[in-house]
Amino acid sequence: MNGTQTTAATAAAELAARRAGVTIRELHGLDEMHEACRVLDRIWRPDPGKPLITPELLRVFAHSGSYVVGVDRSGRMAGFCLGFLASAGLHSHIAGVDDSVRGRNAGFAVKQHQRAWALERSITTVTWTFDPLISRNAYFNLAKLGAEPSEYLADFYGAMQDEVNAGTETDRLMVRWELTGEHAVASAAGTPRIVTADGAGARTVVALDAGPDGRPVLGRQDGDTVLVRIPAEAEELRRTDPSLAREWRYALREVLGGLMAEGHTVTGFDRDGWYVIDRRQESQA
């Protein structure tokens, strides 16, 4: 691995952590793993007796060389991330921070730490999944980090029992983060990957939009650029109108999932809630 790239990545990670006011450290001891599991319980609130992961398994992941880190603020663990070695490089399985550091860019600091950690071990690709209906996560992953969607996974985890995911089918978008690519390098320097629906071009069509009543409306897919809308607050919609939330889930699966299955490339996500798809490029999946 290029030593200059690794040094720059480490410096970027340290700067991101300082700006977020957190310390990110690898975990090793069993007591630390118990603390990490308590953090996960605070964030996802699983059913009692059905933990997301056990301290013993985390200990195995850490001991075998996987990425197991805690996020500390003021002497207290407030976040956690687990990534394990996979065929693509590193797969980042779960990451989250609690309310005490939310809104401080701690998540960005974790990803920059993860990038530096991987590059130090000559790993150049990180993959992970996220719910494609959650607008803030789509923007963070595709714009702020510059990761690229590679696969739409319908109901990937099946029914889950935590409060965050309960009652919804668990569709996920798999992304690849090429750590030495131009978008990841720009991200580390604080430059997001910006695409806008307004600047998409003359042969742009809308394949999915919100109607006047807030329901999903299917449109056209025959342009060079295709726009796919998601609701601004899908998590709130799950609580207030579960039926409408399911309509959006199925519509997005049909449209975004269908376009990706045909090999079309998602080039980004804009702040107004649009996935931008280029039908002139083939997907890298």
At a glance:
This protein has 285 residues and is α+β, with helices and mostly antiparallel strands. It has 8 helices and 12 strands.
What does this structure look like?
The protein has helices at about 5-20, 30-45, 55-65, 105-120, 135-145, 180-190, 235-240, 240-260; strands at about 25, 65-75, 75-85, 90-95, 125-130, 150-155, 170-180, 205-210, 215-220, 225-230, 265-270, 275-280. The chain has about 280 residues and is α+β, with helices and mostly antiparallel strands. It has a 7-stranded mixed β-sheet with strand order 1-2-3-4-5-7-6, sandwiched between helices. Helix 1 (about 5-20) runs antiparallel to helix 4 (about 105-120) and helix 7 (about 235-240) crosses helix 8. The longest helix is centred in the C-terminal third of the chain and has 20 residues, at about 240-260. The two termini are about 25 Å apart. The mean pLDDT is about 90.
SSE layout and pairings?
Blueprint: H1 3-20, E1 23-26, H2 30-44, H3 55-63, E2 67-73, E3 76-86, E4 89-97, H4 106-120, E5 125-130, H5 135-144, E6 148-153, E7 172-178, H6 182-188, E8 204-210, E9 216-218, E10 225-229, H7 234-240, H8 242-261, E11 264-269, E12 274-282
Parallel strand pairs: 4-5, 8-10
Antiparallel strand pairs: 1-2, 2-3, 3-4, 5-7, 6-7, 8-9, 10-12, 11-12
Helix pairs in contact: 1-4, 2-3, 7-8
Number of beta-strand segments: 12
Helix content: 25-40%
How do the SSEs run, as a string of H and E? HEHHEEEHEHEEHEEEHHEE
Note the main sheet: 7 strands, mixed
3D shape: globular
Mean pLDDT: 92
User: For the largest beta sheet, what order do the strands appear in spatially?
Assistant: 1-2-3-4-5-7-6
Number of helices: 8
Look at the helices and sheets and give the structural class: alpha+beta
Poorly predicted regions = none
Radius of gyration: 19 Å
Strand content: 25-35%
Question: What gap, in angstroms, lies between the N and C termini?
Answer: 24 Å
